[in-house]
Amino acid sequence: MPHISVLVAGETALLRDALTELFHTQADICVLGQTTGEHEILCRAAALHPHVILLEPWADGSAVIRTVRSLRRLTPRSAVLALPARGALIDRRALEAAGVHRYLPRDAGWDALLAAVRSLAPAAVRNAVKRPVPALSRRETQVLRGVATAMTNQQVASSLGITTGTVKRHLHAAFRKLDAVSRLDAVTQAAAAGLIILPAAGSVGGAETLGDAAGPRRPEA
Fold first, then answer.
1. Mean pLDDT, the chain, as a whole number?
2. Cys staple from 7: which of 31, 50, 115, 202, with CB 3.0 to 4.6 Å?
C-alpha cells in the first residue's frame, strides 16, 4: 500500500521524537527519518525526496530561509510544512515567500498537523491510500455518538447506564481501531467511514442520541 513519506527536520530532539511516534500510529504515513542542522537536512532531503518535509524553524532566521530555498531547489516535488517554534525570529510571510507550502499556527493540535500532512501529499498518493473501515462494537459506536455531541464521559456513562471506566475502555478501543489521536479525530474518522452520523449544529446529546437509530448496529464487544 502506498504511504505518505515524511522527513522530520528540526533542532529539538524531543519534538522530533514526539512527531515520529505520532506518525508511527498512522497507517498511511511513513517516516523516512529524522534530521537536524542545515547541511544534514539538505543532504537527507535530496537523497530521500519525501512527499512532505516537516520543518521546525530554528533561531537563525536567515539560515532557515536559505534552507527552505535550497530544499525547493533540491527536491521540488517535496512539500515543506513549517511548524511554529519559540525563539525563531522569522516572519511567516518570509517563510511562504521562500517556498514553504504551509505554516501551522501556534494553537494547532495533532489533528491539524495530520490533516496538513495528508493534504500536502500528492493527489495520486492520497487517492491510492485505502484505509479499511474498522468494525466498531455497538457500545463503541454509542460512546462515539455521545462524544460527537460534546458529552463528557460521565454524561455518556449516565445515558448508557454504564460506568465512566467502561466508557473510557470503549473509547480507547475505538481510538485504537480508528488510529485516532484525540476525541475529535475519532469522531471525524468514524463519521467519514459512515459509522456514526454527526448531530446537527446546536443539538444536545442525550440517551436518545446514543441509540441504534443514529447508525449501523454492531455486535456487542
1. 82
2. 50
